[in-house]
Amino acid sequence: MKPELDAFWMPFTASRHFKKAPRMLVKASGMYYWDDQGRQILDGVAGLWCVNAGHNRPKVVQAIQAQAAEMDFAPPFQMAHPKAFELADKVSKLAPAGLNKVFFTNSGSESVETALKMAIAYHRARGEGQRTRLIGRERGYHGVNFGGISVGGISGNRKMFGSLLTGVDHIRHTHDLARNAFSVGQPVHGAEMADDLERVIALHDASTIAAVIVEPIAGSTGVLIPPKGYLNRLREICDKHGILLIFDEVITGFGRTGAPFAANTFGVTPDLMTLAKGLTGGSVPMGAVLAKQAIHDVFMTGPEYLIEFAHGYTYSAHPLACAAGLATLETYADEGLLTRASQLQGYFGEALHSLKGLPNVIDIRNLGLVGGVELTPRPGEPSKRALDIFLDCYAQGVMLRYTGDIIALSPPLIIEREQIDRIVDTLRGAIQRAA
Ligand code: PXG
């Protein structure tokens, strides 16, 4: 290992393995990265599910540069700057009807913590302070802070960190290979899996439950598309019992599913929605929570000179992030990117499903411009086959993601058909070689 690589303790990385053969990116534009060897790499995963408009888009670059020169920072507590209001207004107009309040954070993890706190505080403010319990889902990913890993359903992210939040429970995940393998778009079977929420409610009593949080499509655990009717059923059960429904749209937000948000695509509106990633296209860290008017308004009581919601971050609505967010939304609008996935999903899906029949491929799933290819694990070496495929693709100049033995695809929404072909052809070769 080169000594200069020693100090950086890397996030979610097999760091000793990485530092022996680093994959170092130094430049990006549009659909491509370049590495430190000058190789061009096609980005099949939008950086990390975030670069939805493609890399280094001119409007975004200029907006960040101009903002950095004009005003670096403005305190967000008891002070503000105009772009924060402008961006909140634009995001609220883009959001599903009713989600018209916007609280800014700096990441998806912070958005999740913010939404969970909002849910508990909301019930308390309206006199139901006993509603403190939070319900997540197996195989859910909601970032890495304590609230997020507590409602999250990934044992690897939980087991090292003690007892987590109390008062959390989980409903079952929706992955059902036996009935739904090789589904195109939403799987047909499994709406009834939402009834698992009734089981959890029967155990704890609805009067103790503040909120249910789910990703409309579970991204990190391998692109699990919700069965038809499942999210509607969750919505109905939450309504019946006075429980808030939170959609974590950190990945699915900003065009990934073919509409601005997965809530639009699936026709189900949550009470709170967490966002990050595509909000600034990854250019400057930023997240947000969208809330229904009625949730916000419950806090607006008491003397006007007092702070209503004791929560926020030094960098909430940071000027650089707001400038980047405004320019990113403009780029989405200029190029129709927030609905582009709906035009490409047929082509993308067909290309991806052409991998059916290759050795070890046990499922292919897709919706909008997100896809997953699930493989049988090598005996005794979980996730190694997918790692080999990921490394092989990277060596061929295509960057993908893997999680467990699942290859995940979520390219920038500017992708062209030839680039879809290139990604799928490269993946085909790598799957064959990893047999
Ligand atoms: N919620 C969801 C649904 C996410 O996908 C977060 C919250 C946390 O966001 P931050 O900005 O705090 O990282 C995420 C993040 C992967 C992968 O490989 C996915 C994420 C992050 C890192 C890796 O699938 N999603």
Describe this structure in words.
With 435 residues, this protein is an alpha/beta fold. It folds into two domains: 3-57 and 336-433, Alpha-Beta Complex (Aspartate Aminotransferase, domain 1), CATH 3.90.1150; 62-335, Type I PLP-dependent aspartate aminotransferase-like (Major domain) (Aspartate Aminotransferase, domain 2, 3-Layer(aba) Sandwich), CATH 3.40.640. The protein is built from 16 helices and 15 strands. It has helices at 15-20, 46-49, 58-70, 82-94, 108-125, 146-151, 155-158, 177-180, 196-204, 230-241, 262-266, 293-299, 319-335, 337-353, 384-395, 417-433, and strands spanning 25-29, 32-35, 40-43, 101-105, 133-137, 168-171, 209-214, 244-248, 272-275, 287-291, 361-367, 370-375, 398-399, 401-403, 406-409. The strands form three sheets. Strands 4-10-9-8-7-5-6 form a seven-stranded mixed sheet, sandwiched between helices. Strands 1-2-3-13 form a four-stranded mixed sheet. Strand 7, helix 10 and strand 8 form a beta-alpha-beta unit. Helix 4 (82-94) runs parallel beside helix 13 (319-335), helix 5 (108-125) packs across helix 12 and helix 15 (384-395) crosses helix 16. It is globular and about 65 Å long. The model has no long low-confidence stretch (mean pLDDT 98). Bound molecules: 3-[O-phosphonopyridoxyl]--amino-benzoic acid. 3-[O-phosphonopyridoxyl]--amino-benzoic acid (PXG) binds at residues 48-49, 107-109, 112, 141-143, 215, 219-220, 248, 250-251, 276, 401, 403. 3-[O-phosphonopyridoxyl]--amino-benzoic acid (PXG) binds next to helix 2, helix 5 and strand 14.
